[in-house]
């Protein structure tokens, strides 16, 4: 992995996403004062904060990895998220706090816009340069063979990825469909922001299933089960908004639980292989024990 991609993981993925996530998760009802644009619903702001924190976590864990093959899918997912969020920003620039009287909101609006104008271009250039260091077909001749995923776990990741990418595409192209796809109302900008995150994580999960290497699971799997936990914390803070009995509510809960279970299973499998043999890999937050 080139030093520039490592820096990208740290700056765009961990630092900026982590900061945005903390602001939204801790102050979901004060986005008019502390965030780049106003999010009317507290549950929506807290959810986007949870998604930002998950992106920050997977990026931070990838920062400590040496081999490009071990972070290839995660980088592609982060880059897809950044690109989609950049497009969402351009489509809704009128909603940003460029003229706000709140200093924090004003700085956040300009900082957000600058980052999401530069980051997609930089990311695609870095990805192209990274692939230029490999063989002509994009393969790495020094890439070691890995341990295949358990068939059920691989199927779960592929199914999760397909669901997330499909929902993301529909939400982004037609944010009005959030009325039926989502268990609470989403206005167009938050709908497209959520879709950007779902696209990124969906691509990571599809990549993990396609590559079928257990040793590479830890950054993504840790982020997935933490995302499920943070999402649960975000939506339970606000009463009356989440339609649990709706089809969208049931699907939402099923996907969240599957992310928790699949994430824990992937982390446990990767850590067991790491402890048994092989070089050290980045350690994430410890999985909960029963």
Tell me about this structure:
This protein is mainly α. Helices cover 70% and strands 0% of the residues. The chain is built from 10 helices and no strands. It has helices spanning 3-26, 31-34, 42-63, 68-91, 103-132, 151-173, 178-181, 188-211, 218-236, 247-276. The relative contact order is 0.15. Residues 280-284 have low confidence and may be disordered.
Offer a quick outline of the entry.
Helices cover 70% and strands 0% of the residues. With 290 residues, the protein is mainly α.
Output the keywords.
10 helices, globular, 70% helix, mainly alpha, 290 residues
Helix-residue proportion? over 70%
Rg, Å, rounded: 19 Å
Q: How many structural domains in the coordinates?
A: 1
Class by alpha and beta content: mainly alpha
The shape is globular
> Could you tell me the strand content as a percent range?
under 5%
> Ranges with pLDDT <50 over ≥5 residues?
280-284
The run of helices and strands is HHHHHHHHHH
The largest sheet, given as strand count, sense and whether it forms a barrel, is: none
Q: Calculate the terminal CA-CA distance, rounded to whole Å.
A: 37 Å
Tally of DSSP helical segments: 10
Mean pLDDT: 89
By DSSP, the count of extended strands is 0
List the helices and strands and how they pair.
Blueprint: H1 3-26, H2 31-34, H3 42-63, H4 68-91, H5 103-132, H6 151-173, H7 178-181, H8 188-211, H9 218-236, H10 247-276
Helix pairs in contact: 1-3, 1-5, 3-4, 3-8, 3-9, 4-5, 4-8, 6-8, 6-10, 9-10
């Amino acid at each position: 992995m080139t030093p520039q991609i490592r820096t990208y993981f740290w700056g765009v993925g961990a630092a900026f996403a982590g900061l945005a996530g903390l602001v939204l998760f801790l102050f979901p009802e004060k986005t008019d004062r502390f965030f780049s644009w106003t999010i009317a619903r507290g549950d929506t702001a807290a959810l986007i904060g949870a998604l930002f924190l998950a992106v920050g976590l997977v990026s931070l864990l990838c920062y400590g990895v040496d081999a490009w093959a071990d972070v290839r899918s995660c980088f592609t997912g982060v880059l897809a998220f950044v690109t989609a969020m950049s497009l969402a920003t351009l489509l809704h620039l009128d909603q940003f706090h460029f003229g706000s009287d709140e200093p924090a909101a004003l700085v956040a609006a300009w900082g957000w816009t600058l980052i999401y104008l530069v980051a997609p271009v930089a990311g695609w250039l870095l990805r192209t340069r990274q692939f230029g260091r490999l063989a002509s077909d994009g393969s790495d001749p020094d890439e070691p063979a890995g341990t295949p995923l358990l068939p059920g776990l691989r199927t779960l990741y592929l199914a999760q990825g397909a669901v997330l990418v499909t929902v993301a595409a529909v939400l982004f192209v037609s944010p009005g469909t959030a009325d039926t796809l989502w268990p609470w109302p989403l206005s167009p900008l938050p709908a497209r922001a959520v879709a950007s995150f779902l696209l990124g994580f969906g691509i990571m999960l599809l990549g993990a299933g396609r590559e079928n290497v257990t040793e590479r699971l830890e950054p993504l799997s840790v982020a997935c089960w933490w995302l499920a936990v943070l999402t649960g914390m975000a939506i339970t803070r606000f009463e009356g908004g989440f339609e649990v009995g709706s089809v969208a509510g049931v699907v939402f809960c099923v996907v969240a639980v599957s992310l928790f279970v699949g994430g824990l299973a992937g982390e446990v499998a990767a850590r067991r292989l790491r402890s048994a043999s092989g070089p050290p890999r980045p350690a994430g937050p410890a999985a909960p024990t029963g």
